[in-house]
Amino acid sequence: MTTLLIPLQEENPLLPNWAEVIAAIVFALLLTFIIARFVVPRFEATYAERTEAIQGGLEKAEKAQEAAEAALRQYNEQLADARTEAARIREEAKSEGTQILADLREQTNAEVARIRAQGQAQLDAERSTVMAQMRAEIGTLATTLASRIVGESLDDDQRAQRTVDRFLAELEGEGEPTPAGRS
Questions:
Q1: In angstroms, what CA-CA distances link 31 with 21, 24, 34, 36, 46?
Q2: FRET label pair with 111: which of 55, 94, 162, 163, CA 20 to 30 Å apart?
Q3: What is the pLDDT confidence band of residue 181, given thresholds at 50, 70 and 90?
Q4: Mean pLDDT over residues 3-7, rounded?
């Protein structure tokens, strides 16, 4: 078997090289200094800007929320006022409608009364006209009939007229029959 001899003088791979360790420490310190000096302030500035932007946005959002709530309150107040006004207008319209209906009924009743009175007056006038025509006609017929019954002529117009008037008065019941000789 061959034995391998390990030289005793060679470097131990498990032990670090002190030059590399010192260079690594220097490089790490240099890198830390550069990061702390240049990179961290930029990160902090960006962070501060974003924080301010977020805070400003939040403040704007709060102000907008307050404005929206104020607008909503104002809208609700205006809506309540509008509803109250609408109710008042409805009540006024209802009372005006009732008043208008009452006035129309009153006018209608007055017009009906006027038309009735006019109709009654017209009816009375027509009745009087018809009665006068009927009296004249009945008078002529009665005189003719009486002449035939009595057998004498009743040509005397005044006498015939008195007889007809007395006869019609008896028929109408206007009064007591008058004696034949009275006028």
A1: 15, 10, 5, 8, 21
A2: 94
A3: very low
A4: 51
